[in-house]
Amino acid sequence: MGFDLFILPFTAGLIFILGYFVIRSLIWIVQLDRDDKMKFIKGIPSMATLKAIREVIMESLLHRKIFRTNPVLGYMHMSLAFGWFLLILFGNIEAFTINPGTVHPPYYPIFLRFFETATDFKGAGLFLFLMDLFLLLVLSGVFLALMKRFRSRSLGMKKTSSLQLHDKIALYSLWIIFPARLLAESFTSGIAGNGGFMTGPLGEFFASFLPIGKLVYPAWWIYSLSLGAFFFTLPFTRYMHIPTEILLIFLRNYGIRTNDRYSSFTDIEVHSCSRCGICIDPCPMTAADVNTIQSVYFIRNVRQGKLQPLTVQNCLMCGKCNETCPVGIDNYALRMIKREAFNNEEKNKYDYIPELISDKATVAYFAGCMGQLTPSITRSMEEIFRHAGQEYVFIDKNESICCGRPLILNGRNKEAVELIKRNQDIINSSGARLLVTSCPICYKAFREEYKLGMKVIHHSEYINHLINNNLISLNKSNQRLVFHDPCELGRGSDVYEQPRQVLKSIGSLIESEQTKNLSICCGGSLGNSVLNNSDRHKITRFSLENLTTGDPDRVITACPLCKRTFAQVADDIQISDLAEIVALSLVKSAELTPEEEKVMAETE
Amino acid sequence: MINWGYTINKDSSIDYDKNDRSLFCSLVKKEPTLGICMACGECAATCSASQFTTFSFRKTILLVQRGELNGLEKEISKCMFCGKCTLVCPRGVNTRHILSLLRDHLIK
After folding, report:
1. Which of B46, B79, B83 sits opposite A526 (nearest CB)?
2. ipTM score here?
3. A342, A348, A366, A581: most buried by Cβ count inside 10 Å?
């Protein structure tokens, strides 16, 4: 066992980072909400801990989710994380093999080749081979990381995140660590002959023309200094994600989530963002050349306390970044919290709205503001109701009150309360058992914010229900239909299959490249109140391009707002709402069905 | 005095020299689409709040343009922020942004 002065930068850095993280984690855990703390305590002795360990291995070491996004990018992250982990693990195993039964200081396995030049211990050949292999693995990752910085496209990323100075210092130290280790081990091997398949020949090669005797020390010093620099900058840079993500995975497995306020868990999420930039390309705002608001920058601003209102507001709230984030950070919830924080006062007054009462029926239909603007959708829905022989009441046919979700989306939750109450009373006064809505925005509001004495479903679910119960039948043609998942219906409310089932009974359903949970926002979102029309149109065209690459005959959506937005830019393709195409395809029999006869008798 | 049933009307002249138009000018800078509004009134026709009140985006903008800001705060607080006005505007005026900016300015 040896000692040399050059181990000091590394050892000091290691002590610093371990101490810092232990103290920081304790503060985070102590500050957890009471409920979250209970979940944490109950979770530790449960199966969730085993699940968390598995997730840490799969995500923090192997980076499975990034592999799924792009294999080369996944390999880059895996080789750095898993390769480095293997170097540490096998370095320690080798150190134990050389000095069995003794406790070695933590720096010893890191600088093992310098301290142990003998190659006659048991398994030496295997260790030399493995350690060189792992180093090669990490170096290949460093090489790819360099390539990514200069040409991100080669790793499947159109844009990578832009970095600040302190991030760059940490990044450059990270890049230096492993080439420096390679040189240091090669030089030592050139003198002592303790190299593997890579460091051995390299050492001989360097010895042939370099005074490696003089270079050995500087190389080990650079290795240790770069490690030290990396450790000392880590807590203040994006690399804080390395330890924090492990804590995050455990807490998430114990069932802790970000709800409606910035909790200690939210702070852990914020520190777990690696600023990998994977959220940049999928963000629809990137298509509008807005490059400062993506979740990576939003979270960075939150962490540094430099959040500007525009960064919070200039977002469509489409939720796609949540689906693509490899760390699983709930960007959507965080943005909602920050929107509310910028806007927390109750200012609007809706006491001018009169008391309204709905007619009674078993099914209530709510078109929503957006439905009001697309009368062809509401007409289609009325036709479908009549055709299926359903007794219904059109709640907002004349007076319509906003569901409140546009206010909530813009952080004005307190103001939405009164609108919600008004609508709730009107809808409940219908005495219906079922509420059908055409607007996914209203649908999400009804499901999450309202207390209704009835089941709420979207019209796509309702139509699917009518078909399954043979209340309507549809003519099937061979037209090719592509379905656009509205953000609030798909990602927002997890309704993906019902509209597709309906379309399968009308024509042949084709899928676009980015579909279901990866669907691209149409650009019309009410979640963004600052984006101008020409930028919106860029997003709409970008989204439409994805939908029309498979050459469909029609684009079908299930949202009046999406339909209207697409129709503004679509020149050579027909855009329809699901209700419209269903109404067009209804089989209209000469004879009345028993249900229709019943309705006819009642109306007469 | 005998009440003949006549009164003198309140002066309804608008004095552009005296009225404060700085708010309108700063709003146009922040949201340039305000400048292209042609006051067609489609926003007012579709407005959810105008079913029940006299509030409308068109009226709001007219008052801001003239610098008549008295009582405007109460008027714009009636907006439901539903976004119908933005969607029907034939000129592409970003109505919701203007209302947000107005609200931040007037209600502090």
Report:
1. B83
2. 0.89
3. A366
